[in-house]
Design brief:
Layout (H helix, E strand, L loop, with lengths): L2 H4 L2 H19 L6 H7 L4 H6 L5 H4 L6 H23 L1 H26 L9 H15 L10 H17 L5 H28 L2
Helix pairs in contact: 2-6, 6-7, 6-8, 7-8, 7-10, 8-9, 8-10, 9-10
């Protein structure tokens, strides 16, 4: 295994948490059982607003519906996470990941309030799309364009968004909110680092 993946400890921990929770869901009645999903903290607007269960904006990031849902997200996390972890550093990477997931769920909440269409949702896709936001940010910087060519990144973003438009079971709002959140948090981290380097020159 390349050093990039061996040293990606935060990515490994995130994957382990998701897998452990998935098996716990399965043991408690099935990962695709709605009652089980709600018990474990799935995203559900009526519970969030009427019962003040705001923690669901966070806990739903670690739940998945079925092995295919889990497998797809964890493979995506394994593909993107180690690069973000190496470039950003462990704590900043974790901040980008969690903030992106929260942004994805926040946009979902806003969209459901506006459309009056409520659904039970869960998954790490918003947080993972935040890693795409991180890549988009570095693809527009002159220094890193060769590593992240804008054309390739744009194609990847298209592949991320199109399925959400054509498949109603995919939470497009979580994807968009996550990507925007990842971009913004990466920009904030990058800005603080630039400022820190200027002050300490």
């Amino acid at each position: 295994m390349p050093d990039l993946y061996k040293k990606a400890h935060i990515t490994q921990i995130l994957i382990a948490i998701n897998v452990i929770i998935f098996f716990a869901e399965t043991f408690m009645g099935g990962s695709e059982n709605q009652a089980v999903a709600l018990r474990f903290g799935a995203f559900y607007t009526p519970y969030i607003l009427n019962m003040n269960e705001w923690y669901r904006l966070f806990t739903s990031m670690f739940l998945h519906f079925g092995p295919e849902h889990l497998g797809t997200n964890m493979l995506s996390l394994l593909a993107l996470g180690p690069y973000a972890e190496k470039i950003l550093g462990k704590i900043p990477y974790l901040l980008v990941y969690l903030f992106s997931g929260l942004c994805g769920n926040a946009l979902t909440l806003i969209a459901e309030l506006m459309t009056h269409q409520v659904s039970l949702s869960a998954g790490a896709s918003g947080a993972i799309c935040g890693l795409m936001g991180f890549i988009v940010f570095f693809s527009i910087l002159p220094r890193s364009r060769r590593i992240f060519p804008l054309k390739n990144v744009g194609l990847a973003l298209l592949c991320m968004i199109v399925p959400g438009i054509t498949d109603s079971s995919i939470n497009l709002y979580a994807h968009i909110g996550g990507a925007v959140g990842g971009f913004l948090m990466t920009a904030i981290i990058y800005g603080f680092r630039r400022l820190f380097n200027l002050v300490h020159k």
